[in-house]
Amino acid sequence: LASGFCVLADVVPFHADTIDEAEEAFRIATRALIRVNTMDSIYKKEVIRTNRIGISITGIHEFAWKFFGYGFYDLIDESKSQWFWDFIGELRQTVEKEATAYAEKLGLNTPHTFTTMKPSGSISKLYALTEGAHLPARKFYLRWVQFQNNDPLLEQYKNEGYPVRALKSYNNVSIVGFPTKPMIATLGMKDKLVTASEATPEEQYKWLMLLEKYWLGEGNNQISYTLKISTEKYTLEEFRETFKEYQSKIRCCSVLPIAGDSELKTMYEYLPEEDISEEEFLAIQKRVNKTNDVGFSMDELQCSSGACPL
Known about the structure:
- The strands form 3 sheets. Strands 4-5-3-8 form a 4-stranded antiparallel sheet.
- 31% of the residues are buried.
- It has helices spanning 19-36, 44-50, 60-68, 72-75, 82-105, 121-127, 152-160, 201-216, 236-246, 261-265, 278-288; strands spanning 7-11, 53-57, 141-148, 164-166, 173-180, 226-230, 254-258, 273-275.
- By secondary structure, the protein is α/β, with parallel strands linked by helices.
- The longest helix has 24 residues, at 82-105.
- Helix 1 (19-36) packs parallel to helix 5, helix 5 (82-105) packs parallel to helix 8 (201-216) and helix 8 runs parallel beside helix 9.
- It contains 11 helices and 8 strands.
């Protein structure tokens, strides 16, 4: 939650056991945001006037697969995945009806906005899911983490078989590569799993158009989305034509040119994340023969120190 002109909340329907349970989570989040708007803030007059809220979804790709059996290419084929899109539209109506009724019950103005899609970087990582509306960045990768050379953990990880590399541009620093497999790569999607670099700019624009149609409807907030375009696959002129065709058909979209790992390695000594194949992932995992599961307790997630642990 965040206070300001519009309070936001992420709903994670993937972790629901049933469709009905997922829908109830949206109702609860809606009421929670309405209650947040009754709190005092420096924007109080504006909050009372507009009572804006923004209910967002994160892990939508995992949710679509778990409950509907659709991958990304199925989702951008509206007629094929109409069942899913109709449900997303019903969820939006659920949020709007719940917010309107609850605001009336509390004697507040009807919210000016109801739904949104926020970036959801921190929340999605906590749940190991794709971020907001974004496609997964990678299927398998090494997450490189820096350690001082005198850190005893460095020697431990090296002995356990993790990839370790000394850095030249940082004195007394080495990096350890942790083989990582995101949640979406564990769901058995096979060729239904599509990463951001595999989807064309046109396909990503179509995805945004459908999200705006069913999740935002008329009015409401925006969808935060960074369209990643591979500079190895598309020239500037090719993307310019796609941009001219589709950018005006959506409300908002950022564009991020993405170079391949091979090109980036010539510019940077190391990357925080590095693509690897499934075979490489399994080979490292077999060599390490140990899984580091990181858990979180509610005590660890408290912000009592004044700094958010996320």
